[in-house]
Design goal:
about 450 residues; alpha+beta; Ribosomal Protein S5, domain 2; six-stranded mixed β-sheet; four-stranded antiparallel β-sheet; globular; binds alpha-D-galactopyranose
């Protein structure tokens, strides 16, 4: 971890003393398997070499003061207490609040008083880019808060605690981002399984590089994209409600209650084909109204809304004019989890071509069935394909943000040039002339699998 002089000087300016520790938490790229984690299906991310860094010092009282190194975002200050009231939705101060609230709630049984800290932070992660800058921030501040209070968690336990804690900001995410951020390993991709959480690091084939290209379409998960994102876990829960009621009629081996992640050949002792036939015989292909979904789930509309369909503001997901696409959502989940398993096997066997092909298929599934792509990400992955990528897909929450491509290392420079010319030049100039040239110049970069979040004392 390079000691960052700018951060240290800034800390002195702001707090009038020396920081005593430094810390970082990395962002992540998900190679394949999005909108799967909250359905308890496996994913294939890795922590990257871009991160949020901090220098900090404990305080004697319970106040947490976090300042941004470049003053762009100002400072946030609050107390670690039993109930921490959030700032307005979308405020960056809600991330440290989420982390601290999560730890306080977990520890309040054994401790009534907590120590706070002063910190200065800096990030080189693209914001709202699908690389988990928000979870990195939550993990970073959660880890600092634990350190100053002497709390120790095992890595997987801490990952789950931070995943639950982040819902404070209003997102209904799963646990992929926090698990990748905490458990990242230099040079390794992680196969993450849920329920129970398990992270298995494995090596990737030689001669392959991971190139990230930011579509420059901002997917602000706590702002406009919040309800877009949350609509996916809500629809998944609706689909699970319908399937829990109807599937046992046609698939005798299924045991209730089950999540979409339980619908595997291994768990049910039948083939993938039989699972698909059963599932898609009980789900109708067109959209469901609330009345239809409730009837299919054997519930009243009110019960369905209350138990499965609430967004973070406590209101039910509005019914789309074309209805809820439960069939397509489930098809994305079932087919994507199989692609994740096959992609992990292919990468481990050194078969980058197969892994890449699965990434293209995965992007198409997110576009056609998952409903979380956008025209710009679709164009970018197609341009990546014609520029020679073995595979390419939008990564993370979706609705814009970054795409990750699997590229032969020897072809990287020509690949990047083609992307620059065809996406940032031709396509984006035509469709989004308002996006400044500066943003485009730094939008393509290579990432490498890196270690997870760390803290260490600053040498004086
Ligand atoms: C966001 C969420 C994750 C996951 C991804 C999509 O990053 O925080 O939990 O759902 O979107 O795969």
């Amino acid at each position: 971890m390079a000691t960052n002089k700018i951060l240290i000087n800034k800390f002195r300016d702001v707090f009038g003393r020396r920081p005593t520790f430094e810390a970082f938490a990395p962002g992540r790229i998900n190679l394949i398997g999005d909108h799967l984690d909250y359905n308890n299906c496996p994913v294939l991310p890795f922590a990257v070499n871009l991160r949020i860094s901090a220098v900090f010092a404990p305080r004697e009282d319970n106040r947490i003061c976090v300042a941004d190194s470049v003053d762009r975002r100002g400072r946030r200050s609050f107390e670690a207490e039993e109930r921490i009231a959030p700032y307005e939705t979308g405020d960056w101060g809600n991330y440290p609040k989420a982390a601290v609230q999560g730890v306080v709630t977990d520890k309040i049984g054994e401790r009534r008083r907590f120590k706070g800290f002063d910190a200065v932070i800096a990030s080189d992660l693209p914001q709202a880019g699908g690389m988990s800058s928000s979870s990195a921030f939550v993990v970073l501040t959660g880890m600092i808060f634990c350190a100053v209070n002497g709390f120790e968690y095992p890595p997987l336990g801490f990952s789950s605690l931070m995943a639950a804690a982040e819902r404070y900001v209003g997102t209904q995410g799963g646990g992929m981002d926090q698990a990748a951020c905490v458990n990242g390993r230099n040079g390794k991709v992680l196969k993450i399984d849920f329920n129970p959480l398990c992270c298995r690091p494995f090596s990737v084939p030689d001669g392959i590089s991971f190139v990230v290209a930011d579509s420059l379409i901002k997917a602000q998960k706590t702002k406009a994209a919040l309800s877009l994102y949350n609509s996916k876990p809500v629809e998944s829960r609706m689909a699970a409600a319908v399937l829990n009621r109807r599937l046992p009629e046609v698939l005798k081996t299924v045991r209730q209650p089950f999540s979409l992640g339980d619908l595997t050949a291994e768990k049910l002792g039948v083939s993938d084909g039989e699972i698909d036939r059963a599932v898609f015989s009980v789900l109708k292909e067109g959209g469901y109204t609330y009345e239809e979904a409730a009837a299919a789930a054997g519930m009243s509309v009110d019960e369905l809304k209350r138990s499965r369909c609430l967004m973070s503001d406590g209101t039910p997901l509005p019914e789309p004019p074309e209805g809820f696409a439960l069939f397509r959502r489930v098809r994305h989940v079932l087919t994507e989890r199989r692609r994740v398993e096959r992609c992990a096997r292919a990468l481990e066997a050194g078969d980058a071509e197969t892994a890449g092909r699965l990434m293209f298929e995965s992007h198409a599934s997110g576009r056609d069935d998952g409903g979380f792509s956008c025209p710009e990400s679709d164009a970018l992955t197609e341009i990546a394909r014609s520029a020679g990528a073995l595979g390419s897909r939008q990564t993370g929450a979706g609705f814009g943000g970054c795409c990750v491509s699997l590229v032969r290392s020897g072809e990287m420079e020509t690949f990047k040039e083609k992307l620059m010319r065809d996406y940032y030049g031709t396509y984006l100039n035509r469709t989004h002339p308002e996006i400044p040239g500066g943003a485009k110049a730094s939008a393509v970069f290579t990432v490498v699998p890196s270690d997870g979040a760390r803290i260490r004392p600053l040498s004086v």
